[in-house]
Amino acid sequence: MASQEEKDLPSHIKGEEGAPAGSSKGALKKAAKEKEKAEKAAKRLEQERQQKEKSEANDTSKHLYGPYELPAERRNAEDSKDVAQRTKLRELDEKWEGREVTVCARVHNARVQSAKLAFLDLRQRMENIQAVIAEGGANQISRQMVKWCGGLNRESIVLVTGLVKKPQDPINSATVSSLEIHVAKVYTIAEGPVQLPMQVKDAMRPPPIGEEAETEDQVDSQGTPIVSLKTRLDNRVLDLRTPTNQAIFKIQSGVELLFREYCQNHGFQSIQSTKIAGAATEGGSGVFEIKYFDKQAYLTQSPQFYKQMAIAGDMERVYEVGPVFRAENSNTNRHLTEVHPHSPLRSPTHTSPLFTGLDYEMEITEHYHEVMDFGEALLIFIFRELKSRYAYELSVIEREYPDAGNFLIPEGKCPRLKFAEGIAMLREAGEDVNDYEDL
Predict the structure, then answer these.
(1) What is the pLDDT of residue 330?
(2) Which of 88, 268, 288, 322 could form an S-S bond across to 299 if both were Cys, CB 3.0 to 4.6 Å?
(3) What is d(CA 105, CA 123) in angstroms, rounded to the nearest whole number?
(4) pLDDT tens digits along 359-381
(5) 162 and 181 in contact (C-beta within 8 Å)?
(6) Do the bridges between strand 317-323 and strand 356-362 make them parallel or antiparallel, or are there none, so unpaired?
(7) Which of 174, 324, 156 shows the shortest CA–CA distance to 241?
(8) What are the distances in angstroms from CA 27 to CA 2, 16, 18, 21, 32?
(9) Angle at 63 between CA 61 and CA 67, to 5 degrees
(10) Quick check: 167 and 134 in contact, CB under 8 A?
């Protein structure tokens, strides 16, 4: 029975059978609909769960894919002798056809062609190869495995075992174009995120040129993203994974190794000078001031002073590879003050005066031309050896920058200009310089 207060309520705010508005007919109907909706959702989830369990129970290849687990027999190994052999993609050639390989690589791309067929594009540093996952076969690959492989996140690290075969037609999108891997097993070592701030494949093209282009991502005429310099630097780990950056860093390492090799073969010895000094080591350039306990100190601008000390200490010929710190102010927002001249870390819009130095110092027997001769021969050696020893890395860079390996190496002696001749050439080119201006 309704109370006297409920009876006194206006009819337009009374609920069903005189109930208050909070239990109105519309609200009860809405609640019933929501209950029905929730019951349907619960029923659907239960059906999906049952289907998944049934599918897993019928999955004949569930042991051939999934998260990687180190085999029990290798968990307590005391050395690396029993580590499973993994093949580098760069090693693969026609001789590998018909052989089983195990490779550890990143998923550059994954796609499902049909319920029975999926493809993986596997990337390893500067190389990539196509992997095929097909239902059936000797390993009885299941449709569940096909679907799982096609849904792998990009940049995931996977361990893939399969048979190397020759495709009907070359795979133009792969560096290993004449072979493909027919997958028998695939396990995830590290799963990539679902959403990436940039795709590595999109960064495999030169960044746009111009001040606005450096900070804003663009698309080309076909709608393909062009990744800006800002996005690359904000996501540097992803950017470093591109084949071009891999090759650039390999060549940077090669320059250092060739410099050391040539110096060692010509009677030089390596030194390692301090990078903290009690006073500026050179005039004419800025210094970084630091606190050394309770004293004022400076990051060294170059090893010049210490090289000269070594020569005066009868070491005859010395060289050093190390950082050089010069506090040069810059108006760019991406200026890096500790960077190698050849490094892809540096901004293309500003030449940084701070770098990793390749320094040498030597006794002069009779004439300073001895130092010039050595320097010229050193540079020619480095450029020639880069062309021969790092031809593959140069070819990778040339995909984006066609003139990257076009070194103009002189035959015979390098041309030399006297200072006065250089001033004259500048004046002929329209530059206003005096006879003693620093070039």
Answers:
(1) 63
(2) 288
(3) 6
(4) 999 999 999 999 999 999 999 99
(5) yes
(6) antiparallel
(7) 156
(8) 19, 10, 14, 9, 9
(9) 120
(10) no
For residue 406, what are the contacts with CB-CB under 8 A and spacing of at least 6? none
Beta pairing, strands 317-323 & 269-270: parallel
- Type and span of the H or E element at 420: helix 419-428
C-alpha of 78 from chain center: 33
Most confident of 15-19, 183-187, 225-229: 183-187
Is the pLDDT at 35 greater than 90? The verdict is no
Six-digit token string for 398: 């040339």
Give phi and psi for 43, each to the nearest 5: -65, -40
Which percentage of the chain shows pLDDT scores above 70?
A: 82
The Cα 82–Cα 72 span in angstroms is 12
Between the alpha carbon of residue 57 and those of residues 51, 138, 140, 183, 185, the distances in Å are: 10, 20, 15, 22, 19
DSSP-derived pairing of the beta strands 157-165 and 180-190: antiparallel
Kindly provide the residue ranges of all beta strands, DSSP E only, lying in 229-316, ordered along the sequence. 269-270, 276-277, 289-292, 295-299
Q: How far is CA 53 from the centre of its chain?
A: 40
Instruction: Read off the DSSP letter of residue 334.
Output: T
pLDDT at 335 over 70: no
- Could you report the per-residue pLDDT of 266-290, keeping only the tens digit for each? 999 999 999 999 888 776 567 889 9
Query: Radius of gyration over alpha carbons of the chain, in Å?
Result: 34
- Rounded CA-CA distance 431/428 in Å is 7
Structural tokens at position 308: 């000269």
How many Cα atoms are found within 13 Å in the side-chain-facing hemisphere of 302?
Answer: 17
The pTM of this model reads 0.78
Q: Encoding tokens for residue 379?
A: 């540079």
How far is C-alpha 287 from the chain's CA centre?
32
Ranges 202-216, 262-276, 330-344: which has the least confidence: 330-344
- Cα torsion 112, 114, 116, 119: sign: negative
Say how far apart CA 394 and CA 205 lie, in whole Å: 16
How sure is the predictor about 349, in pLDDT bands with cuts at 50, 70 and 90?
very low
Helices 369-389 & 391-398, crossing angle to 10 degrees? 70
Closest to 305 measured CA to CA, from 313, 296, 297:
313
Distance of alpha carbon 68 from alpha carbon 158, whole angstroms: 8
